[in-house]
Amino acid sequence: MRLVLATANPQKAIEVADLLRAFEVVPRPASLGEVDETEPTLQGNARLKAKAVMTATGQAAVADDTGLEVEALDGRPGVLSARMAGPDATYAENVAYLLDALDGVGARNPAARRACFRTVATVAFPDGRELVAEGCLEGEIALGPRGDAGFGYDPVFVPAGGDGRTLAEMTLEAKQAISHRGRAFRALAVALASL
Fold first, then answer.
1. Domain 2-193 is in which class?
2. Residue 7 to residue 53: CA distance in whole angstroms
């Protein structure tokens, strides 16, 4: 089965292609512009991106949207995770904004910094069918960034039940084994294989 990746993020593309290696995964055409994420939910944005790429290419397309839900911030940044510090914010700016927001509400101990990384993955087919899968990784937000691997909030996300490392301190293989994205795309791969 051939799937066109909707993401233009090269780091995310590597992770998704690795997780869907049982299928023929191809990059999105360079000529396609970014899809505005205007939906209020992760599932809505994943669907929006998958459908846009499927419509443009005429082929099945796979997309995801990921949000970091922090308890002390009432579930924020959630669907706005990539834009927490503004529409053109860098990963480092979003992380700094998150840490400042947690300091601002007095969340300094681990119990006050609980969070969930959530990914919704979607495949849109030209015949109108859709597949959706979700993955969640519970954990907490570290007091400061640690590690050089990964991207986004990986340097401050410490998975629950782990050895205290952030996602950015793990190898790609170790991260994929437990991550929200890994869980969502493994479930999606099972659903795809059953078609």
1. alpha beta
2. 9
Picking from 52, 62, 49, 54, the residue whose alpha carbon sits closest to that of residue 22 is 62
Residue listed under structure tokens 């050895």: 163
Dihedral angle of Cα 28, 34, 36, 42, to the nearest 10 degrees: 40
Active site residue 65: yes
Q: How far is CA 76 from CA 99, 114, 175, in A?
A: 12, 12, 23
pLDDT at 145: 97
The full set of domain ranges for the chain reads: 2-193
pLDDT digits (tens, 9 = 90+) for 82-103: 999 999 999 999 999 999 999 9
Longest dimension (CA), the chain: 50
Which pTM was predicted?
0.91
Q: In degrees rounded to 5, what are phi and psi of residue 157?
A: -100, 120
Structure tokens at 64: 């995801």
- What are the distances in angstroms from CA 23 to CA 3, 16, 17, 19, 193? 7, 11, 9, 9, 9
For tokens 């510090």, the residue is: 85
Active-site residue identified among 18, 64, 65, 88: 65
What sign results for the dihedral spanned by CA atoms 28, 32, 38, 39? negative
